[in-house]
Design goal:
The protein is an alpha+beta fold and 79 residues long. It is built from two helices and two strands; from the N terminus they run E-H-E-H. The protein has a two-stranded parallel sheet.
């Protein structure tokens, strides 16, 4: 199994980190710390998840912001 909290990438080496239906662990802080480590200064974190995965989306966004990221745009799609 691949561990996304310990990627084999150097610090500050990628422009974009994408989490798409992959934030299912209980160690979300570790996921975002790793994203912060491998992202370049101007890098972007993109998250595509279903809102039902979170008890409170605003709380989730706040937690991500506390990890050093800022929300630029939130998009919700419905059928």
């Amino acid at each position: 199994a691949y561990n996304i909290t310990k990627t084999p990438l150097p610090d500050s080496s990628v422009d974009v980190v994408v989490y798409c239906l992959s934030l299912m662990g209980t160690n979300l802080g570790d996921f975002f710390r790793e994203a912060n480590r491998i992202l370049k200064i101007s890098g972007k974190l993109k998250i595509a998840e279903v809102t039902s995965r979170f008890r409170n989306v605003k709380t989730f966004i706040g937690a991500v912001e506390k990890m050093g990221f800022s929300l630029k745009r939130k998009v919700c799609y419905y059928k």
